[in-house]
Amino acid sequence: VKKLEDLAKVPYDALNYGNKGNVIVEEIVDGLSPIFHHQVSLGHDPILGFIFGVFDMLRGTVTTLDFKGRFLMQAAEGFNERKAQNIFQAIATVFLHMLSDVNGSSAAKNDGMGLPVPFMAMFNKIQFGKVGDNDTISELVKSMFYQGYDFRHFCSMSLPVMITEVIVRVSYFAKRMHEGHAFAESVPVGLNHKKRPKLGTMLFIAHSASTAINAGKVAFTDNPMNINYPQWLSFARYSVKQLKWVLSEKPDGRHKYVMDIVNGQWDSLYSDLDNLWDEFSDGSAVVYI
Question: Which one of 39, 44, 168, 268 counts the least CB within 10 Å of its CB?
Answer without folding.
Answer: 268
